[in-house]
Design brief:
Layout (H helix, E strand, L loop, with lengths): L9 H15 L6 H8 L3 H8 L2 H14 L4 H8 L3 H16 L9 H7 L6 H27 L9 H20 L4 H6 L1 H4 L1 H6 L2
Helix pairs in contact: 1-2, 1-4, 1-7, 5-6, 5-8, 6-9, 7-8, 8-9
Length: about 200
């Protein structure tokens, strides 16, 4: 009598898909790669997730809810904008340079690794990055209202500086720039905010 097939662990499959997309980007992962990474037939992947694009969206959501949510947590939990942004940058470096894990940010890397053919995915990833920029600007607006920043501070320009830096850290980490070097640039990077602070 044949043994029963192993029960499909959807959460584990999603974690494996997340890591594959994180490592090689959206277009860099073919269905055959997903079959190999998840250890299940393509028909089962389609049955569980609908399509490669839907699986990718779920994988990004898993990333953002977990380790990729560091920026959201830092901006919400720290009492001052300075502490929030410094923590956000530090945790970005620590995540993006972890040994034995994909380097960089999954959302930034997914777009950078090869041209994406799906307009819907391109737009969606762009919205993700724009939302992160907005969250930084919004945190600086709160700091301005609270009197942490000098009157007249251009919080949009300042937010753009730190969003660009955050996304750039991902590219640098993917290019092999080490943790110590990336951590060392946080102090000079904070100078812009210190100049604007009361």
């Amino acid at each position: 009598m044949a043994g029963r097939p192993r029960e499909f662990d959807r959460e584990l499959a999603l974690q494996k898909a997340r890591d594959a997309f994180w490592e090689r980007g959206y277009e860099g992962v073919a269905m055959s790669d997903l079959v190999a990474a998840l250890g299940i037939a393509s028909a089962r992947i389609y049955a569980a997730f609908g399509s490669k694009e839907e699986l990718f969206r779920e994988a990004v959501a898993l990333y953002v809810e977990g380790e990729g949510g560091f920026a959201t947590r830092a901006l919400a939990q720290e009492e001052t904008a300075r502490a929030a942004i410094e923590r956000m940058l530090r945790e970005a470096v620590l995540l993006y340079t972890r040994s034995g894990r994909p380097h960089g940010c999954m959302v930034v890397s997914a777009a950078a690794n090869g041209g994406i053919q799906s307009d819907a995915v391109i737009t969606w990833l762009g919205e993700f990055r724009s939302a992160r920029t907005k969250s930084i600007v919004d945190r600086l607006r709160l700091a301005l209202k609270a009197g942490e920043l000098k009157a007249g501070t251009d919080v949009v320009a300042l937010g753009d500086v730190y969003a660009t830096l955050l996304h750039g850290l991902s590219v640098q980490a993917r290019d092999g720039v080490g943790k110590a070097r990336l951590l060392a640039m946080i102090a000079p990077a904070m100078a812009a905010l210190e100049l604007a602070s009361r």
